[in-house]
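BUG: 3D viewer hangs when loading the predicted structure for this chain

Environment: internal workstation, default settings.
Expected: structure renders.
Actual: progress bar stalls at 90%.

Input used:
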Amino acid sequence: MKTNHAFYIGVVLISLLLGSLPFWVQSEYFFFAAYTVLQFVILATAWNILGGYAGYVNFGTAAFFAIGAYSTVVGYKLGWPQGYNILLGTFMAGLIGLGMGYLTLRLKGVFFSIATLALSVVLNTIVTNTPFLGGARGVYVIVPRESPIGVGQYIHWLFFLILAMAIFSVIVARTIEKSSLGQGLMAIRDDELAAEGLGVPTLRLKLIATTISGALMGLAGTTFPYLITYMEPTATFNLSFAVNSIAMPIVGGLGSWLGPLIGALLLGTIQQVASVTLSATWNLLIVGAVLVFFVTLAPNGLMGIFKKK
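C-alpha coordinates produced before the viewer hung:
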Protein backbone atom coordinates (compact mmCIF):
# COMPACT_ATOMS: atom_id res chain seq x y z
CA MET A 1 0.00 0.00 0.00
CA LYS A 2 2.86 2.42 0.80
CA THR A 3 4.35 1.72 -2.63
CA ASN A 4 1.02 2.52 -4.30
CA HIS A 5 0.69 5.74 -2.33
CA ALA A 6 4.22 6.80 -3.28
CA PHE A 7 3.53 6.01 -6.94
CA TYR A 8 0.35 8.07 -7.13
CA ILE A 9 1.88 10.95 -5.17
CA GLY A 10 4.74 10.93 -7.67
CA VAL A 11 2.26 10.91 -10.56
CA VAL A 12 0.43 13.92 -9.13
CA LEU A 13 3.64 15.89 -8.54
CA ILE A 14 5.01 15.14 -12.01
CA SER A 15 1.64 16.01 -13.58
CA LEU A 16 1.59 19.37 -11.79
CA LEU A 17 5.18 20.11 -12.81
CA LEU A 18 4.69 19.22 -16.48
CA GLY A 19 1.25 20.82 -16.57
CA SER A 20 2.76 24.13 -15.52
CA LEU A 21 5.18 24.23 -18.49
CA PRO A 22 2.90 26.27 -20.81
CA PHE A 23 2.90 29.09 -18.23
CA TRP A 24 6.67 29.63 -18.30
CA VAL A 25 8.04 28.03 -21.50
CA GLN A 26 7.57 30.18 -24.60
CA SER A 27 8.92 27.97 -27.40
CA GLU A 28 6.20 26.28 -29.46
CA TYR A 29 8.72 23.79 -30.81
CA PHE A 30 9.42 22.64 -27.27
CA PHE A 31 5.80 21.53 -26.93
CA PHE A 32 5.86 19.88 -30.34
CA ALA A 33 8.93 17.90 -29.26
CA ALA A 34 7.43 17.15 -25.84
CA TYR A 35 4.23 15.93 -27.54
CA THR A 36 6.26 13.55 -29.72
CA VAL A 37 8.19 12.15 -26.74
CA LEU A 38 4.99 11.61 -24.71
CA GLN A 39 3.37 9.99 -27.74
CA PHE A 40 6.23 7.48 -27.79
CA VAL A 41 5.74 6.91 -24.05
CA ILE A 42 2.19 5.72 -24.83
CA LEU A 43 3.25 3.56 -27.79
CA ALA A 44 6.16 1.94 -25.92
CA THR A 45 3.99 1.29 -22.85
CA ALA A 46 1.23 -0.18 -25.00
CA TRP A 47 3.64 -2.42 -26.93
CA ASN A 48 5.16 -3.69 -23.68
CA ILE A 49 1.79 -5.00 -22.46
CA LEU A 50 1.82 -7.67 -25.17
CA GLY A 51 5.47 -7.79 -26.18
CA GLY A 52 7.11 -7.35 -22.77
CA TYR A 53 4.69 -9.10 -20.44
CA ALA A 54 3.48 -11.90 -22.74
CA GLY A 55 6.49 -12.16 -25.08
CA TYR A 56 4.52 -11.71 -28.32
CA VAL A 57 6.42 -9.32 -30.61
CA ASN A 58 4.01 -7.00 -32.40
CA PHE A 59 5.19 -5.26 -35.59
CA GLY A 60 1.79 -3.67 -36.22
CA THR A 61 2.10 -0.59 -34.02
CA ALA A 62 1.62 1.75 -36.98
CA ALA A 63 -1.65 -0.02 -37.86
CA PHE A 64 -3.24 0.61 -34.46
CA PHE A 65 -1.84 4.13 -34.33
CA ALA A 66 -3.38 4.79 -37.76
CA ILE A 67 -6.74 3.37 -36.65
CA GLY A 68 -6.84 5.94 -33.86
CA ALA A 69 -5.72 8.75 -36.17
CA TYR A 70 -8.13 7.98 -39.01
CA SER A 71 -11.01 7.43 -36.60
CA THR A 72 -10.41 11.02 -35.56
CA VAL A 73 -10.50 12.04 -39.23
CA VAL A 74 -13.87 10.30 -39.63
CA GLY A 75 -15.24 12.01 -36.52
CA TYR A 76 -13.84 15.36 -37.64
CA LYS A 77 -15.50 15.09 -41.07
CA LEU A 78 -18.77 14.18 -39.35
CA GLY A 79 -18.49 17.25 -37.13
CA TRP A 80 -18.03 15.38 -33.84
CA PRO A 81 -16.30 16.97 -30.81
CA GLN A 82 -12.70 16.08 -30.10
CA GLY A 83 -13.58 14.07 -26.99
CA TYR A 84 -15.87 11.79 -28.99
CA ASN A 85 -13.15 11.30 -31.60
CA ILE A 86 -10.66 10.24 -28.93
CA LEU A 87 -13.11 7.69 -27.53
CA LEU A 88 -13.96 6.45 -31.03
CA GLY A 89 -10.31 5.95 -32.02
CA THR A 90 -9.46 4.16 -28.77
CA PHE A 91 -12.49 1.88 -29.05
CA MET A 92 -11.90 1.01 -32.70
CA ALA A 93 -8.21 0.23 -32.12
CA GLY A 94 -9.12 -2.00 -29.17
CA LEU A 95 -11.78 -3.75 -31.24
CA ILE A 96 -9.33 -4.39 -34.09
CA GLY A 97 -6.81 -5.61 -31.53
CA LEU A 98 -9.35 -8.12 -30.24
CA GLY A 99 -10.14 -9.29 -33.77
CA MET A 100 -6.47 -9.56 -34.66
CA GLY A 101 -5.93 -11.58 -31.51
CA TYR A 102 -8.56 -14.13 -32.45
CA LEU A 103 -6.94 -14.56 -35.86
CA THR A 104 -3.26 -14.53 -34.97
CA LEU A 105 -2.62 -15.44 -31.32
CA ARG A 106 -2.55 -19.13 -32.08
CA LEU A 107 0.58 -18.43 -34.10
CA LYS A 108 3.95 -18.45 -32.38
CA GLY A 109 7.14 -16.44 -32.66
CA VAL A 110 8.00 -14.95 -36.02
CA PHE A 111 4.72 -16.09 -37.58
CA PHE A 112 2.74 -13.90 -35.19
CA SER A 113 5.06 -10.95 -35.87
CA ILE A 114 4.64 -11.32 -39.65
CA ALA A 115 0.86 -11.45 -39.25
CA THR A 116 0.84 -8.16 -37.31
CA LEU A 117 3.07 -6.56 -39.94
CA ALA A 118 0.64 -7.74 -42.62
CA LEU A 119 -2.18 -5.98 -40.76
CA SER A 120 -0.34 -2.68 -41.16
CA VAL A 121 0.14 -3.28 -44.90
CA VAL A 122 -3.53 -4.20 -45.40
CA LEU A 123 -4.82 -1.14 -43.51
CA ASN A 124 -2.42 1.12 -45.41
CA THR A 125 -3.83 -0.19 -48.68
CA ILE A 126 -7.41 0.32 -47.50
CA VAL A 127 -6.78 3.90 -46.38
CA THR A 128 -4.90 4.76 -49.58
CA ASN A 129 -7.87 3.63 -51.67
CA THR A 130 -10.64 5.20 -49.55
CA PRO A 131 -11.56 8.70 -50.81
CA PHE A 132 -13.56 9.55 -47.66
CA LEU A 133 -10.33 9.23 -45.64
CA GLY A 134 -8.41 11.37 -48.11
CA GLY A 135 -6.82 8.46 -49.95
CA ALA A 136 -3.24 8.88 -51.08
CA ARG A 137 -3.72 12.66 -51.42
CA GLY A 138 -4.51 13.12 -47.74
CA VAL A 139 -7.00 15.28 -45.87
CA TYR A 140 -6.72 18.55 -43.94
CA VAL A 141 -7.80 18.92 -40.31
CA ILE A 142 -8.39 22.56 -39.42
CA VAL A 143 -7.62 23.51 -35.83
CA PRO A 144 -8.02 26.85 -34.02
CA ARG A 145 -5.02 29.00 -33.22
CA GLU A 146 -5.88 29.37 -29.54
CA SER A 147 -6.34 26.69 -26.89
CA PRO A 148 -10.01 25.82 -26.20
CA ILE A 149 -9.42 26.31 -22.46
CA GLY A 150 -8.32 29.91 -23.02
CA VAL A 151 -4.68 29.37 -21.94
CA GLY A 152 -1.92 29.56 -24.53
CA GLN A 153 -1.80 28.18 -28.07
CA TYR A 154 -3.48 25.08 -29.44
CA ILE A 155 -0.23 23.12 -29.15
CA HIS A 156 -0.43 23.69 -25.39
CA TRP A 157 -3.87 22.04 -25.36
CA LEU A 158 -2.51 19.08 -27.29
CA PHE A 159 0.36 18.86 -24.81
CA PHE A 160 -2.12 18.68 -21.91
CA LEU A 161 -4.07 15.95 -23.72
CA ILE A 162 -1.06 13.78 -24.58
CA LEU A 163 0.33 14.25 -21.05
CA ALA A 164 -2.95 12.97 -19.57
CA MET A 165 -2.96 10.06 -22.03
CA ALA A 166 0.64 9.13 -21.19
CA ILE A 167 -0.06 9.17 -17.46
CA PHE A 168 -3.19 7.07 -18.01
CA SER A 169 -1.22 4.54 -20.08
CA VAL A 170 1.50 4.18 -17.44
CA ILE A 171 -1.11 3.70 -14.71
CA VAL A 172 -2.84 1.01 -16.81
CA ALA A 173 0.46 -0.80 -17.42
CA ARG A 174 1.44 -0.69 -13.76
CA THR A 175 -1.99 -1.92 -12.69
CA ILE A 176 -1.71 -4.84 -15.12
CA GLU A 177 1.78 -5.70 -13.89
CA LYS A 178 0.63 -5.85 -10.26
CA SER A 179 -2.52 -7.87 -11.06
CA SER A 180 -3.22 -11.53 -11.77
CA LEU A 181 -3.46 -10.60 -15.45
CA GLY A 182 0.15 -9.46 -15.43
CA GLN A 183 1.31 -12.54 -13.57
CA GLY A 184 -0.52 -14.74 -16.07
CA LEU A 185 1.02 -12.92 -19.04
CA MET A 186 4.50 -13.29 -17.56
CA ALA A 187 3.86 -17.00 -17.07
CA ILE A 188 2.93 -17.21 -20.77
CA ARG A 189 6.16 -15.42 -21.67
CA ASP A 190 8.29 -17.79 -19.58
CA ASP A 191 6.66 -21.04 -20.71
CA GLU A 192 3.25 -21.02 -22.34
CA LEU A 193 2.80 -24.80 -22.34
CA ALA A 194 3.63 -25.00 -18.64
CA ALA A 195 1.21 -22.14 -17.94
CA GLU A 196 -1.57 -23.97 -19.76
CA GLY A 197 -0.78 -27.11 -17.79
CA LEU A 198 -1.15 -25.15 -14.54
CA GLY A 199 -4.59 -23.93 -15.58
CA VAL A 200 -3.72 -20.42 -16.82
CA PRO A 201 -6.34 -19.34 -19.43
CA THR A 202 -3.63 -18.37 -21.90
CA LEU A 203 -5.79 -17.46 -24.90
CA ARG A 204 -8.15 -15.29 -22.86
CA LEU A 205 -5.27 -13.42 -21.21
CA LYS A 206 -3.55 -12.86 -24.55
CA LEU A 207 -6.79 -11.53 -26.05
CA ILE A 208 -7.18 -9.10 -23.16
CA ALA A 209 -3.56 -7.97 -23.59
CA THR A 210 -3.97 -7.54 -27.35
CA THR A 211 -7.14 -5.50 -26.86
CA ILE A 212 -5.65 -3.21 -24.21
CA SER A 213 -2.39 -2.82 -26.13
CA GLY A 214 -4.22 -1.99 -29.36
CA ALA A 215 -6.54 0.46 -27.61
CA LEU A 216 -3.65 2.38 -26.06
CA MET A 217 -1.80 2.52 -29.40
CA GLY A 218 -4.98 3.88 -30.97
CA LEU A 219 -5.28 6.38 -28.13
CA ALA A 220 -1.81 7.71 -29.01
CA GLY A 221 -2.98 8.37 -32.56
CA THR A 222 -6.26 10.11 -31.81
CA THR A 223 -4.76 13.58 -31.37
CA PHE A 224 -2.12 13.18 -34.09
CA PRO A 225 -4.30 14.71 -36.87
CA TYR A 226 -4.77 17.83 -34.74
CA LEU A 227 -1.00 18.13 -34.40
CA ILE A 228 0.08 17.82 -38.03
CA THR A 229 -3.26 19.14 -39.48
CA TYR A 230 -2.69 17.18 -42.70
CA MET A 231 -3.27 13.44 -42.67
CA GLU A 232 -1.87 11.16 -45.35
CA PRO A 233 -0.87 7.47 -45.23
CA THR A 234 2.90 8.01 -45.37
CA ALA A 235 2.94 10.08 -42.18
CA THR A 236 0.61 7.74 -40.31
CA PHE A 237 1.90 4.31 -41.35
CA ASN A 238 5.43 5.42 -40.53
CA LEU A 239 8.21 2.91 -39.90
CA SER A 240 9.43 4.96 -36.94
CA PHE A 241 6.33 4.11 -34.92
CA ALA A 242 6.96 0.36 -35.17
CA VAL A 243 10.73 0.66 -34.66
CA ASN A 244 10.54 3.00 -31.68
CA SER A 245 7.73 1.14 -29.94
CA ILE A 246 9.95 -1.96 -29.91
CA ALA A 247 13.31 -0.27 -29.29
CA MET A 248 12.22 1.90 -26.37
CA PRO A 249 11.01 -0.94 -24.11
CA ILE A 250 14.17 -2.91 -24.96
CA VAL A 251 16.37 0.06 -24.04
CA GLY A 252 14.47 0.73 -20.82
CA GLY A 253 13.83 -2.89 -19.91
CA LEU A 254 11.14 -5.31 -21.03
CA GLY A 255 8.48 -6.68 -18.75
CA SER A 256 8.08 -3.73 -16.36
CA TRP A 257 5.97 -0.59 -16.50
CA LEU A 258 9.00 1.61 -15.78
CA GLY A 259 11.24 0.26 -18.57
CA PRO A 260 9.24 1.61 -21.55
CA LEU A 261 8.79 4.93 -19.76
CA ILE A 262 12.54 5.36 -19.23
CA GLY A 263 13.37 4.13 -22.73
CA ALA A 264 10.82 6.42 -24.40
CA LEU A 265 11.92 9.50 -22.46
CA LEU A 266 15.60 8.82 -23.13
CA LEU A 267 15.45 7.71 -26.76
CA GLY A 268 12.67 10.15 -27.67
CA THR A 269 14.58 13.10 -26.22
CA ILE A 270 17.77 12.09 -28.05
CA GLN A 271 15.85 11.93 -31.33
CA GLN A 272 14.30 15.37 -30.83
CA VAL A 273 17.69 16.90 -30.02
CA ALA A 274 19.17 15.20 -33.08
CA SER A 275 16.34 16.56 -35.26
CA VAL A 276 17.32 20.10 -34.28
CA THR A 277 21.10 19.80 -34.18
CA LEU A 278 21.66 17.28 -37.00
CA SER A 279 18.71 16.13 -39.10
CA ALA A 280 15.50 14.15 -38.64
CA THR A 281 16.91 11.54 -41.02
CA TRP A 282 19.38 10.55 -38.28
CA ASN A 283 16.61 9.39 -35.95
CA LEU A 284 16.28 5.80 -37.16
CA LEU A 285 20.07 5.48 -37.37
CA ILE A 286 20.34 6.57 -33.74
CA VAL A 287 17.62 4.14 -32.71
CA GLY A 288 19.34 1.30 -34.57
CA ALA A 289 22.74 2.03 -33.03
CA VAL A 290 21.33 2.28 -29.50
CA LEU A 291 19.28 -0.88 -30.03
CA VAL A 292 22.31 -2.88 -31.20
CA PHE A 293 24.28 -1.66 -28.19
CA PHE A 294 21.64 -2.71 -25.67
CA VAL A 295 20.80 -6.02 -27.34
CA THR A 296 24.46 -7.07 -27.34
CA LEU A 297 25.78 -5.54 -24.11
CA ALA A 298 22.71 -4.96 -21.91
CA PRO A 299 19.88 -7.24 -23.09
CA ASN A 300 17.83 -6.48 -19.96
CA GLY A 301 17.96 -2.75 -20.66
CA LEU A 302 18.58 0.06 -18.20
CA MET A 303 16.32 -1.59 -15.63
CA GLY A 304 18.56 -4.66 -15.72
CA ILE A 305 21.64 -2.50 -15.17
CA PHE A 306 20.00 -0.72 -12.22
CA LYS A 307 18.98 -4.03 -10.64
CA LYS A 308 22.54 -5.35 -10.89
CA LYS A 309 23.88 -2.20 -9.25
